[in-house]
Write a structure and sequence with these properties.
Elements (H helix, E strand, L loop, with lengths): L1 H27 L6 H6 L2 E8 L6 E3 L4 E2 L8 E7 L6 H19 L1 H5 L1 E7 L7 H11 L4 E4 L2 H10 L4 E5 L6 E5 L3 E4 L5 E5 L5 H17 L1
Parallel strand pairs: 4-5, 5-6
Antiparallel strand pairs: 1-10, 2-3, 2-6, 4-9, 7-8, 9-10
Helix pairs in contact: 3-7
């Protein structure tokens, strides 16, 4: 009699443990959103990733930076400049916060993500300036510069607009640019973009959902 009661209790405890385990797994497992849902949360993903041509830039270490460096990684590419008063530091801070959240949620995905700032002010943003600037937000973040035409061609292919307006003094100018963050997949294709302004928590939720879709494709 006592043995039967003990077996019943053990069975109930095991069943409850299984239910709790399933509940925890469901809570911790990212929910896969469809494209419309991701777009509503700030991440637009293309039906088919877009190919774009190779480019020739220089990274913050004065080394060549080409499309080859995008292969095998998820890359967030933002176009801005080091003296930007608002959009650039705010966006890069949001990217850094999102990156930390991703590392906590998925260490492998966090380690596989690279972040690149391509300057839209190559006249002033030397590799040395870019290095100091991007490393303020992340020790592994990259900066890239180059000839105006090369930067323009890359930005144009990633649907990023930028331009220059006359400054207050002669010879000065102001820089204007889009605030979207291009998402490049591990095959080096333009996968989508985060809308501006980015929200770190929403970036995490949508990025994880996008990864699930990518793994299933």
């Amino acid at each position: 009699m006592n043995k039967g009661v003990a077996n019943t209790v053990i069975g109930c405890v095991a069943f409850m443990a299984l239910l709790i385990g399933l509940l925890v797994h469901r809570i911790l497992t990212p929910t896969m959103m469809n494209q419309e849902q991701m777009s509503e949360q700030g991440l637009f993903v293309y039906d088919l990733p877009r190919r774009f041509t190779d480019f020739a830039l220089t990274d913050h270490n004065n080394k060549p930076f080409t499309k080859a460096q995008l292969n095998g990684h998820w890359t967030l590419m933002f176009f801005g400049y080091t003296t930007c008063p608002d959009v650039c530091p705010t966006t890069l801070a949001s990217i850094a916060q999102f990156h930390e959240l991703l590392k906590e949620a998925d260490a492998e995905a966090g380690a596989n993500l690279q972040v690149v700032l391509v300057t839209v002010d190559p006249m002033h943003d030397t590799p040395e300036k870019l290095e100091a600037y991007v490393h303020y937000f992340g020790k592994d973040y990259m900066g890239a510069t180059g000839d105006y035409i090369n930067i323009f061609n890359l930005a144009h292919q990633l649907n990023i607009a930028f331009g220059y307006l006359p400054g207050k003094s002669e010879g000065e100018y102001e820089v204007t640019h889009s605030g979207e963050i291009a998402v490049i997949n591990p095959e080096g294709d333009f996968h989508g973009f985060f809308k501006s302004p980015p929200n770190p928590q929403k970036m995490l939720t949508t990025f994880q959902s996008m990864l699930i879709g990518w793994q299933q494709h």
